[in-house]
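ingest -> validate -> predict -> emit
validate: passed (alphabet ok, no gaps, 233 aa)
predict: started
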Amino acid sequence: MTRPRILDPRAVPVAGTDAHLPALNLQGLDVQSLRQRFDSLAASRWAPEFAGDGRWATEREPAAAAVLVALVARPQGWQVLLTRRTDHLRDHAGQISFPGGRSEPEDADAAATALREAEEEVGLPRQQAQVVGALPAYTTVTHFVVTPVVAVVQPPMVLALDTFEVAEAFEVPLQFLMTPAHHRRHVFHAEGQDRQFLSMPWQGPGADGVQREYFIWGATAAMLRNLYRFLSS
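emit:
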C-alpha cells in the first residue's frame, strides 16, 4: 500500500508551536566549538529527536544520500544556506531543501557526497566549505537514508545554480531556525492514526532581494530541529 503524499502542507492544520523551549544562545558559537561538539557526539548517547518520516512510501531498497548544512559566517551572524527546488521536478518540486542528493560510488563518504552535490547544484566550491561534523542519518518517506553534513562557509561566496534543479538559493538566519517558537507542529489524520510534521515558515529576502515566505517543512525542518537539539545538548 502506498503511503499518501502531502500535496499542500500549508493546508494542514497547525496544532501549536514549541515556544516553551528556549531559543539557542549562539554567542560563542565558532568553528572550534562546533568541532568540539561533533567530536563529543561519537562518544555520547545523544539521539536525534526525529529519525525519519515514518513508514516509507516505497518498498525499494534504501539508498544513501547526504545534504550540506552550510553555516555561512556573515557579519550579522550565522546564516543557513537553503535552496528552493524548481517547480517542474518529479519529486519535491518547489520545496525548500539543503543542497544534496544521492551518494555515488566514487564518493568516499557522506561528506564527499554533500560537498559534490552542493558544488553541482549551487556552485559552492567544495574547498570553501569546512566540514565540522555530521548529524545522525534521517530516513525519508522515499527511503533515502540522508546524512546531514555540517560545514562552515566563509564569504565571499559566489554561487552558480543548476537551473534545472534549483530555482534559487537563499540564506536564513540560524538564530531564527534555532528558536523553537518558530517551530510549528502540523497534525493530520492518515492510515487510521494522527501524524505530524514540523514547519518553520520564514519571511525574508530571496536572492533577488524581494521579500517572500519560504515554507520550510518536512525532512528539512526535521533535520534543522535535530540540529537545534544537538546544539542545545
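The mean pLDDT is 90.
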